[in-house]
Records
---
Amino acid sequence: LHSLNESIKLDPNQYMYHSNLAHIYQTDLDNGYGIVCFGSEGVVETNKCLMDGIYDSYISAINAGDPRWQTRYNAAQSAAELGGFLNSELIAMNAIRLYKESIDMVPHSYIIKNSFAKALLTFGNPQAAREVLVKSLDITGTSTASVEARFLQGLSHADEGDIAKAIDAWNEVLQIDPSYAPVYHNFGLISEDNGEFELAIDYYSTSIMLAPTETDSYIRRAAVYLAAGMNKLSEADTATALELGADRRDLSPVTK
């Protein structure tokens, strides 16, 4: 980190220095080392510092002349994450611009389109997300590569309150890939909202079986267990979620 910062001071127009610095920030964020932003108070401030560093470094790389599509894509992802974290309309608009530039550079990448759609959902624009997802599905068709876009289409309908269309989209996903865990998690959410707690537990349990290292279904199942008075089972799921790295702030359903 010190070496890169010194190199940037000597020659700020070397875009590789900036992109490598972004990688250091990203590695720290992903692994929770707490080294780069040492001195920040608490997890929230540390994460903000790291996300700022990632975003600023990629933007600096682009401004220094980085021609690579990967850098714009990484910048778009970091802008989307930071914009959502800070609820910043300005950074969100920059994320949208960077995603569009990335797509212009790699027009046949359904992965970038799906990532863009996720960002648009985060920014509260499900209709625009669906427009992007249609273009993603033009590339992937009905192959297994299409399941993420179809799942996101379901989320876009759910965000607009059209649960029937969401369920239809998610059933399409299961026809292509019956082991796609996020669908079962969302079926669990719907069942829970409808007061069908046994069914919700079944769906969350299926999600956990298919994706045992993902924490969301443990947390939601723990909440249902708690509501049903099954405190020991709730505590067990909560403990598992924490062991798997869940943020304590995500445990609000079971710590109220």
Note: The chain has a mean pLDDT of 94.
---
Amino acid sequence: TTRSELFGLQLIFTAGWATICAISAVIFQGYLNNLTGLQTAGVLLAMLIFGETFERTLGVLLTATGRVGLSTGLKFGRVLLTFPLQLLFLYVIMTGSSGIVYGLFIATLLGASVTLHFVGVEPSWPSLETLSSVRQFARYSIPNAVFGTLYENIDVILLGIVLTSASAGYYEAAFRLTLPAIFLAEAAATGLMSKVSAASSQERAEGSPISEILSYTSILAVPLFFGTVPLADEIIRVVYGPECSDAAVLLVGLGLYQ
């Protein structure tokens, strides 16, 4: 399986998915317009889906080459570019709230173009062997992604159902403050996935590099936890205000968990 074939298969899937979503957006345009209050809601949704899907496809391919830092930097660059473009559409071109989507869409396309340059692979038509290999991977990967997303948000969902929406809000506020603790782990996991997958398919071991990378994942997590224990209440008050002080206890617990 070559990268060019995988790139071609990804583009085929992206084009098919974007086409299905675009047709659905047109069919349900009236409902979307009433739901959002925007006359072009269907078009905006199609733009978002196409841009995000294409950008994520290229981002995964770049990360799979082992250039995790470059991939993260390009994503950060897109974030920096998005905000001024949105301001341009909102306050200079005066497009209204639709400018939020226009700015994000243009920034996404520009970021995807730069990412495509660094990927350095021309797409080719996938062979039957490539299709079979991807099918075997997708058989487990897709359900894992679906249930993994549900699992990641199940705590907030259960809090909202069992307790109150305010409790879920406090939990979410505290959780976001602990995200830096897992930044290195998340970044390492993105790059390690391609290494482990390639090693598994070629029946070779990658134990040493994995151990070396994982040894750095607690550099931020440990100091963050010990910092939240005495300062949890102050951190919550500074970031969210005194009305969210009930989230301080959750911040300590989540810091330990992370």
Note: The longest helix spans residues 128-162.
---
Amino acid sequence: YLPAARVANVLNDQGRAKGFVDTAGQLRPRVAEVLAMQAIVGKASDPKQAARTMQQAIDAAPEVPEYQYELGMIFGQMGAPVEAIDAFRKAVALDPDYVDAYFQLSKVQRDLQRPKEAKESLENAVRIDPKRSDAWVEMADLLGQQGDDAGSLHAYEKALKADPKNPVSICAMGITLVQRLGNDVKNLKRGIDVLESCVRLDPKRGEAWHVLGDAYNTVTPQTSKTKKEAVRCLQKYVDLSPDDPNALVVKDQIKEINGK
């Protein structure tokens, strides 16, 4: 029953998952593995009870780092960041190579405005798994917020190297090159190239189309081609986000470019 509950939970079939795990609980009511699965299945509907159940699993098998990790995820869902940090720290104490725990720990630390601690957690994550592109993207964003544009760009490069076809990494890097580093013409032009790759991989990413259109409208010298490209990208943004209040501003921007 427990494997069936896991599969149903992955498929987001909560009704069947609960049925399977309840049956497993009747057959093996005090087994840590069953208690942990009950908590995982039940966290969406009753996170407080899920936290209590996961703690029972931890009490039954304190050596299992995954249970501390899952408890941290439940606390995060409950809006209890201090408790989440404590659980994630216990997870990495049990398993110093637990990259997921370091990654989630960094996100909670950022939410609590602890950038130094978050950076240390991310450094541990990418040390353990240098191909962890989402951790590199998180690192890049964190460094960018701290004004370390060179470090941010380096982290984006690492993210792209780890996963060259990940639109999240590519789009974030392109936006950074244009918006934060675009005063340098080389960065602006490179940002355009990166964002073109981004929208090829993910054509529905509205923000990328918007930034790309602004970049084409900013690049010098302005030519009929760059104006045409700016209009193409900005119109794509409007088409994707017609209800966005900013779409009206962009429509006026398109008219202005066409009138130049």
Note: The chain has 15 helices and no strands.
---
Amino acid sequence: EDKDCNNIGKTIYEYLNTDDLTQVYNLGQAVNYLENGDLKKISYFKENGQIVKQIDYNYFQERRNQYRSHGIIKSNVFAPTLGGSTSPDDIFQLHYYPIIGYRYDLKSITSTTYEEYPSKYITELEEFDYYENGLLASKSVSKSNSKQAITQYTYPHNLNDEPYIAMASNDVNILAPIIQKRQLSSVNGVNNETYKRLDKYVQNGDAYLKHQFEDSYGGSSTIKVFEVLSFDAYNNPEHLITKDGIQNNYKYGYKDM
């Protein structure tokens, strides 16, 4: 409704909600419906009940790894007594079972906009691909007119020089930042780069800091947007220069100053 309480349509949200029964097997415990609670569909309607747009979400589940774990279980056995009968007795055993890990990610989003339901409509398909480690590798958007926009992502683990090798190691224990983002326009299968952003990092003590990023448009020459020339003892930018050649110096009000 609008501010005057007039009906201007409605929006319906649908979520995945399969009965989530936790099952216990001899080999351990299993939860079968990881998708429960995730958004499945959004439908937009006019005030007369006619649908004008629908968005569908598609997910995928993939088995990734398996570990072996163990625990202690208690069992009842019947031991013979002096009278010849049996009596229950408790024994404790070391029990091994697998822990199976799954990935559950968004695979695609389909948007359908109706000009005249159900015969005239425009569709847009957004698809997602992932690296083996679960990070987003690319996102593509396809429209009914056959044009496609693609965005590709590069992370430290994709690069073979420092400091990115160190940044990708488990010893650093940091989130994986996006090092490069490329945007491509694809028409009839021909890809043309429209934009690229490259973030460069440097090691400063135990920290890995973004000290420069560069832009390029349509495959043109690279524009250095800014560069940090020095950091202070707390890893904050101290001296940087912008793409216009303007130099900036910063001082921070730390407690010990």
Note: The first helix runs from residue 164 to 168.
